[in-house]
């Protein structure tokens, strides 16, 4: 019997997030370019009498530990599929900002699925896990695979994308989260419902990613947004996040002033990410942003195409 399984699962950013008009089911059609970045949650599952969730790390008090926790829902959904009891303790050590637009909850759900599948020695192929993940949330399938991918539909229809080399980022965490549904509602309010074009991937973004070329990626984002150099982004939710949290303008301005190639809101926010040329600039921009008082913390993180990493937990002492 395996004593436990630990999954290290990375955060995601949306390098592009094109949002279509609202659908009757309350969702939006997306074309999004997902990319993992090196900030991680560690999720450990161990056998227990009943399903129990514990959480540690920054803002862990904001994460529910009842049945509404996405990792709890993932565990229950997998147990139902396998016809077993969800008798596990799930511990989540947070390193991904909570409610920050970096898929922290979805990453935990993906990790719980992978961990429980291993613990219960389930004979499940990846497509089956992806299906269970898609029912839990739009970002869960990508969190199961990681790397770089184009997401269509609600973001759950994935095609892996090539990533030509590591990209360097600075992740600036804001105080307090933003609700994803509230940001989508604000996006609809700002844009109106009519005349929204179908969401499509932007080829220069895909080309720059495939080349691992940070300056080309920044230029592609400027082109997408018809913005001055360094001010581009391809996130249709950014105006909505800025409308709900105007202080993020200051964070974006400071990061750009410090020499980032570009900066934008991650997903539904409020976390902002800055693309920088190399690891040395990442350290400098992170230091400057941390000192600026326009965010609660700023950390350098690299995208190197990582996915979740499964390892066995040591036997408890
Ligand atoms: O799928 P997920 O749980 O991440 O979605 C959270 C909320 O974000 C949805 O209830 C919906 O309001 C909004 N959403 C959306 N269109 C998408 C994905 C999410 O409107 N494609």
UniProtKB/TrEMBL annotation:
<feature type="domain" description="GHMP kinase N-terminal">
    <location>
        <begin position="69"/>
        <end position="147"/>
    </location>
</feature>
<feature type="region of interest" description="Disordered">
    <location>
        <begin position="298"/>
        <end position="317"/>
    </location>
</feature>
<comment type="pathway">
    <text>Isoprenoid biosynthesis; isopentenyl diphosphate biosynthesis via DXP pathway; isopentenyl diphosphate from 1-deoxy-D-xylulose 5-phosphate: step 3/6.</text>
</comment>
<dbReference type="InterPro" id="IPR020568">
    <property type="entry name" value="Ribosomal_Su5_D2-typ_SF"/>
</dbReference>
<dbReference type="GO" id="GO:0019288">
    <property type="term" value="P:isopentenyl diphosphate biosynthetic process, methylerythritol 4-phosphate pathway"/>
</dbReference>
<keyword id="KW-0414">Isoprene biosynthesis</keyword>
<dbReference type="InterPro" id="IPR036554">
    <property type="entry name" value="GHMP_kinase_C_sf"/>
</dbReference>
<dbReference type="InterPro" id="IPR014721">
    <property type="entry name" value="Ribsml_uS5_D2-typ_fold_subgr"/>
</dbReference>
<keyword id="KW-0067">ATP-binding</keyword>
<feature type="binding site">
    <location>
        <begin position="97"/>
        <end position="107"/>
    </location>
    <ligand>
        <name>ATP</name>
    </ligand>
</feature>
<dbReference type="GO" id="GO:0050515">
    <property type="term" value="F:4-(cytidine 5'-diphospho)-2-C-methyl-D-erythritol kinase activity"/>
</dbReference>
<feature type="active site">
    <location>
        <position position="139"/>
    </location>
</feature>
<dbReference type="InterPro" id="IPR013750">
    <property type="entry name" value="GHMP_kinase_C_dom"/>
</dbReference>
<comment type="similarity">
    <text>Belongs to the GHMP kinase family. IspE subfamily.</text>
</comment>
<dbReference type="GO" id="GO:0016114">
    <property type="term" value="P:terpenoid biosynthetic process"/>
</dbReference>
<dbReference type="GO" id="GO:0005524">
    <property type="term" value="F:ATP binding"/>
</dbReference>
<dbReference type="Pfam" id="PF00288">
    <property type="entry name" value="GHMP_kinases_N"/>
</dbReference>
<dbReference type="InterPro" id="IPR006204">
    <property type="entry name" value="GHMP_kinase_N_dom"/>
</dbReference>
<feature type="domain" description="GHMP kinase C-terminal">
    <location>
        <begin position="206"/>
        <end position="292"/>
    </location>
</feature>
<feature type="active site">
    <location>
        <position position="12"/>
    </location>
</feature>
<keyword id="KW-0547">Nucleotide-binding</keyword>
<protein>
    <recommendedName>
        <fullName>4-diphosphocytidyl-2-C-methyl-D-erythritol kinase</fullName>
        <ecNumber>2.7.1.148</ecNumber>
    </recommendedName>
</protein>
<keyword id="KW-0808">Transferase</keyword>
<feature type="compositionally biased region" description="Low complexity">
    <location>
        <begin position="298"/>
        <end position="307"/>
    </location>
</feature>
<dbReference type="InterPro" id="IPR004424">
    <property type="entry name" value="IspE"/>
</dbReference>
<dbReference type="Pfam" id="PF08544">
    <property type="entry name" value="GHMP_kinases_C"/>
</dbReference>
<comment type="function">
    <text>Catalyzes the phosphorylation of the position 2 hydroxy group of 4-diphosphocytidyl-2C-methyl-D-erythritol.</text>
</comment>
<keyword id="KW-0418">Kinase</keyword>
């Amino acid at each position: 019997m395996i004593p436990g399984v630990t999954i290290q699962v990375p955060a995601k950013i949306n390098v592009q997030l094109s949002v279509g008009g609202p659908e009757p089911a309350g969702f939006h059609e997306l074309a999004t370019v997902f990319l993992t970045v090196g900030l991680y949650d560690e999720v450990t599952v161990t056998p227990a009498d009943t399903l129990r969730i514990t959480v540690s790390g920054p803002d862990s008090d904001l994460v529910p530990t009842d049945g509404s926790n996405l990792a709890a829902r993932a565990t229950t959904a997998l147990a139902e599929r396998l016809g077993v009891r969800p008798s596990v303790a799930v511990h989540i050590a947070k390193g991904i900002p909570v409610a920050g637009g970096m898929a922290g909850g979805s990453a935990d759900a993906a990790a719980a699925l992978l961990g429980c599948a291993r613990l219960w020695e389930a004979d499940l192929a990846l497509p089956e896990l992806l299906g269970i993940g898609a029912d839990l949330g739009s970002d869960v399938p990508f969190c199961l695979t990681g790397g770089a991918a184009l997401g269509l539909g609600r973001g759950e229809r994935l095609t892996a994308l090539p990533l030509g080399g590591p990209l360097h980022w600075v992740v600036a965490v804001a105080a307090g989260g933003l609700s994803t549904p509230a940001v989508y509602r604000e996006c609809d309010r700002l844009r109106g419902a009519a005349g929204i074009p179908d969401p499509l991937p932007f080829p220069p973004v895909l080309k720059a990613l495939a080349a691992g070329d940070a300056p080309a990626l920044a230029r592609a984002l400027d082109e997408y947004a018809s913005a001055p150099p360094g001010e581009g982004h391809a996130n249709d939710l950014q105006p909505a996040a800025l409308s709900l949290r105007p202080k993020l303008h200051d964070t974006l301005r400071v990061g750009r002033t410090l020499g980032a190639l570009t900066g934008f809101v991650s997903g539904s926010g409020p976390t902002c990410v800055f693309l920088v040329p190399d690891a040395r600039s990442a350290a400098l921009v992170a230091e400057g942003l941390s000192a600026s008082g326009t965010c609660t913390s700023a950390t350098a993180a690299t995208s190197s195409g990582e996915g979740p990493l499964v390892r066995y937990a040591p036997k408890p002492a």
